[in-house]
Amino acid sequence: MTSFHSLPLPSCCPPELSLWRIDMTLNVPFDESNFPSLSDTERLRARSFHRSEDALRFAAVRAVLREILAKVTGMAAADVALVEAQNRRPALRHASESAQEPPLDFNVSHSGAHGLIAVASGRRVGVDIEQCIAGFDWRTIADIALSPGERAHIERLGRAAQTAAFYDIWVTKEATLKAHGVGLTDGMQHFSTLGTPREGIAIGDAFFQTATLAAPPGYAASVAWSV
């Protein structure tokens, strides 16, 4: 069973940005007939997963994405032409073939039993949701994920707050890099999410604003958009 609903935007978000959360039931067998709007390529990819829950997660999020884009574009969900752009980022076919900034951009993320979809007109957008692992030792990836200032900020917190703070930074960084269109290994430690929201995040010549999103218990989520 899959359901989705629109999320209220934080007050700092631009009006042309829209967000949806997907809630999934993953303890059932995968049946591709439940996702009639998927393309042949998407069905093949769903069947390639070894675990049923992974196939369900991919198929459910992609089917909801098609439904949302169908409402935005006026097309039938099955007729929405999706391709994989840089770093396997899904894109509308006509937008990916254009050298111009796409008039409609979107991004998806899923973790555990939940997913997020962000759609924006006239700007780049990225979104991330992560299921937080209790007791996760954030120091094991601090060198590749955190700037020195972010690491110092987390270290100053009490032990109980450190994991939550790390995940908040992680989802903000991942959403920002996805909005920028680069991979997660492309310098996460070289920029910082700290500072006032108005200052935003600069990556090269690109500039992004971010917002922390309300997430289900045990999850962290963030959205980023180009300025």
UniProtKB/TrEMBL annotation:
GO cellular component: cytosol
Keyword terms, alphabetized: Transferase
Annotated 4'-phosphopantetheinyl transferase N-terminal domain residues: 37-118
SUPFAM superfamilies per the UniProt record, alphabetical: 4'-phosphopantetheinyl transferase (SSF56214)
Listed InterPro entries: 4-PPantetheinyl_Trfase_dom, 4-PPantetheinyl_Trfase_dom_sf, AASDHPPT_N, P-Pant_transferase_sf
Protein name: Phosphopantetheinyl transferase
Source organism of this protein record: Caballeronia arationis
A matching Pfam family: AASDHPPT_N
GO biological process: one example: lysine biosynthetic process via aminoadipic acid
Keyword Transferase set for record: yes
Entry annotated with the keyword Glycoprotein: no
Superkingdom as given in the UniProt entry: Bacteria
Family membership: Belongs to the P-Pant transferase superfamily. Gsp/Sfp/HetI/AcpT family.
